[in-house]
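Notes to self after the Tuesday call (sharing in case useful).
The group wants a holo model before anyone commits to mutagenesis around the pocket. I volunteered. Ligand is S-adenosylmethionine. Logging inputs and output together so the record is complete.
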Amino acid sequence: MCRRRRLRIVAVSRATMALCSTRQVCAVTDVPGASHSTAGTLYVVATPIGNLDDMSARALKVLSDVALIAAEDTRHSIRLLQHFGINTPLAACHEHNEREEGSRFLTRLLAGDNVALISDAGTPLISDPGYHLVRQARAAGVAVVPVPGACALIAALSAAGLPSDRFIFEGFLPAKAVGRRARLGQVKEEPRTLIFYEAPHRILECLQDMEEVFGAERPALLARELTKTFETLKGLPLGELRAFVEADSNQQRGECVVLVAGWTAPEDEQAVSAEVMRVLDLLLAEMPLKRAAALAAEITGVRKNVLYQLALEKQKDK
Ligand code: SAM
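Result:
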């Protein structure tokens, strides 16, 4: 490519970048009555979960340009901002005062100031404060713009090698064993990949309960200290993963995400189609279990003992 043409391309892309970075993003609000042409924008900004190199150029630009940063913990965030040489004023917006403080941020937004929302690490609102402020802002017709970046659950899922086309995020499990087991019981037969956040001092009990409820063979993965020096991703069946963590106290330290493969029906059950189950159900309603299984086997061609077992399971569940 000739030098003049190359210089022209560079000049054009610099001009485009300058345009994008001044306007940030052309936000379109979808809230009824949202015609606050003078209102500011609320930027929901993700920050790193360990490695500061994960801070995006756009996040830095937004945090430098806004009038105010609403932070989960100002003492924590000041260090992050100092690291990047950002002097924007900070104000606390945490779980306890978010509802009341929200209106303070809202006043600033409605007065035309741009405000950024950050949490201690990762994406705000994901097991972190911010929900009430975002809701209030949207209800008031203020444009809310995401500035995406690190999120522990997505980082873990992206490297876990477990099905990622469909998954559910369960956040933190209840701290007490009874509540935790009950919650795990509710998702025992969930076919999508399950993702949990857990505190390090509870990781062992959590894995013990998972092994008990989901079974020792269920594939799982522990993602610990993601993006940090001692990052560990250990994928094993639950029984072995529990033993691995039990045997090494280092694995019971640091921040962690637990992923568990979704439920798959036992092979025999999988082989039985919905239509076969319908026949079995109809017969079970009319005759004794053994006779129903035998007749269903004759009608459908599925083995008698498979249907007999299924019928027994059904009776147990009643
Ligand atoms: N908003 C954050 C996000 O986007 O992931 C999550 C905040 S939540 C209060 C903190 C929990 O996230 C931790 O207890 C842990 O389960 C998970 N987490 C955060 N950083 C992590 C990291 N570097 N490695 C593994 N898990 C992490």
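Two things stood out.
The pocket of S-adenosylmethionine is lined by residues 49-50, 119, 121-123, 126-128, 151-153, 197-199, 223-228, 255-257 (CB under 6 Å).
The radius of gyration is 27 Å.
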